[in-house]
Amino acid sequence: MILGELNAVLSEKGITHLDTVPSLLMLLDPRSYKTLKRVVSGGEPCPARLKEWEEYCLFYNSYGPTETTVTSTMQLLNGASNIVYDRSTFA
Q: Which residues are registered as beta bridge partners of 85?
């Protein structure tokens, strides 16, 4: 139910920017959101499968301390081979 509501809001409201966790992005199809211009993924390790988002929008992998809501680093994924996330590589 919640995923359906999110899909509706992203599509019907013409959302252009989305900042969310990778586990939620794994449930979404990037081809379905024609208005999304920028997607920021952070808060947990970013699976390699999410690299497909860079074909449809500017896709950023971000990192910040979990005890705060601050993003301390961010990297635009544009075909980069090694994406660093919290001392580990792009899964």
A: 88
